[in-house]
Amino acid sequence: MKLLRQSKWQDCRKAWILPNGDVIVFEESCHRDHIVNHTDEYEKKFGLILPKSLEDTAVRQAAVEIGFTRINYQFVNGILTVETFKKYWHTVTRNPLIKFINVNAELIDFIRVNLFENWGYYTESFQNVMEKKNCQKSRYIPD
Questions:
Q1: Taking a C-beta distance cutoff of 8 angstroms, is the pair 105, 137 a contact?
Q2: How far apart are CA 18 and CA 58, in angstroms?
Q3: Residue 93 to residues 21, 51, 123: CA-CA distances in angstroms?
Q4: Is 4 a member of any domain?
Q5: What is the pLDDT of residues 71-120, one digit of tens each?
Q6: Number of domains in the chain
Q7: Residue 10 pLDDT exceeds 60
Q8: DSSP codes of every residue in 48-109
Q9: Disulfide engineering: 112 pairs with which of 36, 69, 81, 88, CB 3.0-4.6 Å?
């Protein structure tokens, strides 16, 4: 669950919070590749059905719609971006995300959370936590 830079050239790390609350930090270059590489496992465990188009956005949307939470961290600016559906925020996402932020707090300067109602509408929370104590950063995600 720790965000480690694999090389000095790596500019970001990616993770998923799975519908069962497990956090997976992965090596693939994008969220889509991780889902495609684990399709059989996620289909059995969570009922994931990939779209006919394996285009990046379509695959991410299929995963997020059934309870996956997308996490992207950029080393260059310290921004942690989280995307999930609002209906999963309290049941699946929030507690594992708090743990994730606490483990990686020293790296995080900004937290962006996009809570989707549907794919056309979402609420964004963007917090500057650069000056906050590491132990307090997770307090700045939406309730």
A1: yes
A2: 17
A3: 7, 23, 15
A4: no
A5: 999 888 999 999 999 999 999 999 999 999 998 898 899 999 999 988 77
A6: 1
A7: no
A8: ----SS--HHHHHHHHHHTT-EEEEEETTTTEEEEEEEGGGIIIIIHHHHHHHHHHHGGG-S
A9: 81
Instruction: Give residue 90's identity as a one-letter amino acid code.
Output: H
CB atoms under 10 Å from CB of 24, counted, come to 14
How far is 84 from 105, CA to CA, in rounded Å? Answer: 20
- Do residues 12 and 26 lie in contact, with contact meaning Cβ atoms separated by under 8 Å? no
Report yes or no on 1 lying in a domain: no
Domain that holds residue 60: 14-140
The pTM of this model reads 0.89
**Tens digit of each residue's pLDDT (9 = 90 or more) over 44-71:** 999 999 998 888 889 999 999 999 999 9
